[in-house]
Design goal:
Blueprint: H1 8-18, H2 22-32, E1 46-48, H3 58-61, H4 71-76, H5 80-93, H6 95-100, E2 102-104, E3 109-110, H7 122-131, H8 133-146, H9 150-154, H10 158-166, H11 171-185, H12 202-213, H13 226-238, H14 249-259, H15 274-290, H16 294-299, H17 304-330
Antiparallel strand pairs: 1-2, 2-3
Helix pairs in contact: 1-2, 1-8, 2-11, 7-8, 10-11, 10-15, 12-14, 15-17
């Protein structure tokens, strides 16, 4: 029977891979991978989702959504015992498709996302997850990296991470949970300030002063505008950091070490509401979110026709949000 607990070494290994603190890895895994590593009998937890199994075999499984009912909604109503029996039937029809249609282990990664988790197939992913809790953590981190969400963990921008991982509807809720878990895992520390385009205040000014002292041509006006973003990108590229123009935990720590002075968040910065951040994220990261699981998670549950409608709605919504953003800046 595999160990029900991850090794001590895995957290440092994954922190090194992501380029962030151990406390960040633990906090995000705690919130986003809240399942059990193994059942009491040592088996890997799984949840079969019949609507992801080929439609041609739904009748054989006994899965029959009502007329007009979304398949994913009908799937939600299936009991645990029926899921188990459906899985057994499906496995005898097509094992790979069955594994694709189930979520696995503590991270509850769907089998059809196996490649994003670093595996050639769902069967290979399940085999690895059965070996150890460490492998489940590795799969989760690989999924985060391959969906381009790792940059948010390095900057400790938990709202941006949650927006991409969970979708916009629950982003603030999950970001709050990750922040709470981070404080607990880090011994009471708050997450780092995240300085990006639109931010202003003493923390931005301090960073600009430090960059100027390091030889960069930058005005210390306390406003994070396009020029500051460009210089932050230059600094990140010159120092082998992830280049995104956002000064989060990793970039700020690097600048602080190089200049010999810490950057502290001030309480006089222009406040930014959760609604502001969601608008900003929709404008700045709309494409990244569609490619990273927020909207993709939704689209996997609807028909091709409805996907077209939703995508069109997302585009229109982002245009509207962009207009609101302009009005907000003028106001």
């Amino acid at each position: 029977m595999p160990s029900n607990y991850p090794s001590t070494a895995i957290w440092q290994e994954m922190a090194n891979k992501l380029g962030c603190e151990i406390a960040v890895v633990k906090a995000v895994f705690e919130v986003e991978a809240a399942g059990k590593f193994y059942e009491s009998n040592g088996k890997l937890p799984r949840r079969f989702e019949p609507h992801h199994f080929p439609r041609a075999h739904w009748g054989t499984l006994g899965f029959a959504p009502r007329e007009g009912q979304a398949a994913w909604r009908a799937s939600l109503a299936v009991s645990t015992s029926r899921r188990r029996s459906m899985f057994d039937i499906a496995e005898n029809i097509d094992a790979e498709a069955t594994y694709d249609a189930a979520s696995w282990g503590a991270p509850q990664i769907m089998g059809f996302n196996a490649e994003l988790a670093g595996y050639a197939s769902a069967v290979e992913m399940v085999d690895a997850f059965e070996q150890s809790a460490d492998e489940q953590i590795r799969g989760f981190v690989e999924f985060v990296i391959n969906t381009n969400l790792d940059t948010h963990l390095r900057s400790q921008d938990f709202l941006a991470f949650a927006y991409g991982y969970n979708g916009s509807g629950q982003a603030a809720v999950y970001a709050g949970r990750i922040e709470s878990a981070y404080r607990r895992q880090s011994g009471g520390q708050s997450s780092s300030p995240v300085l990006r385009v639109g931010r202003r205040g003493q923390a931005v000014e301090q960073m600009q002063v430090q960059l100027a002292a390091l030889g960069y041509d930058i005005e210390a006006d306390g406003v994070f505008g396009a020029d500051t973003a460009r210089i932050v990108r230059e600094y990140q590229e010159a120092n082998n950091l992830a280049v995104d123009g956002v000064a989060g935990a990793t970039t700020l720590a690097h600048i602080a070490t190089a200049s010999g002075e810490e950057i502290e968040a001030d309480r006089e910065e222009v406040p930014e509401t959760t609604a502001d951040r969601v608008i900003d994220l929709a404008i700045e990261r709309g494409g990244a979110v569609v490619g990273s699981g927020g909207v993709v998670g939704l689209l996997s549950n609807v028909s091709d026709t409805n996907q077209t409608i939703i995508i069109a709605g997302v585009v229109v919504s982002i245009v509207v949000l962009a207009g609101l953003w302009i009005l907000k800046k003028k106001g």
